[in-house]
Design goal:
This protein is an all-alpha fold and about 130 residues long. Helix content is about 80%, strand content about 0%. The protein folds into 2 domains: about 50 residues, no CATH class; about 80 residues, AhpD-like. This is 4-carboxymuconolactone decarboxylase.
């Protein structure tokens, strides 16, 4: 597969997982500083890793959220909490993931994520989406 084919495949998966609005904002915000980085993300993260056959997108979403909780990456975590619904993850599954993360990532990380998840849920409920 060429880099261009991998990029196109990555953009397709990125749109499926994160939604068109998010990807469109990312592409509209391209600049000389971030253009190569955004291309790299699309090719490598989405076109290479998220397309591997060993895990489905539901499982990848859950793993990604768990790692972002552990790393305390709030902006990315919020994005992936919202995107998880595109992959069939339920609110109950997210609740259990956050509860489980309290053991392995710590109570402060789980508590912060519980608040962040509630914020995402409230935003989604207000917009009538999920």
């Amino acid at each position: 597969m060429t880099d261009e084919e991998r990029y196109k495949q990555g953009i397709a998966v990125r749109r499926k997982v994160l939604g068109d609005a998010h990807v469109d904002r990312s592409l509209q915000g391209l600049s000389p500083l971030n253009e190569e980085f955004q291309n790299f993300i699309s090719r490598y993260a989405w076109g290479e890793t998220w397309t591997r056959p060993g895990l489905n997108h539901h499982t990848r979403s859950m793993i990604t959220i768990a790692m972002l909780i552990a790393l305390n990456r709030e902006a990315e975590l919020k994005m992936h909490l919202r995107a998880a619904f595109n992959n069939g993850v339920t609110r109950d599954e997210l609740k259990e993931l956050i509860m489980h993360s309290a053991l392995y990532c710590g109570l402060p990380a789980a508590n912060a994520t519980m608040h962040l998840a509630q914020q995402v849920f409230d935003e989604m409920d207000a917009a009538g989406s999920e």
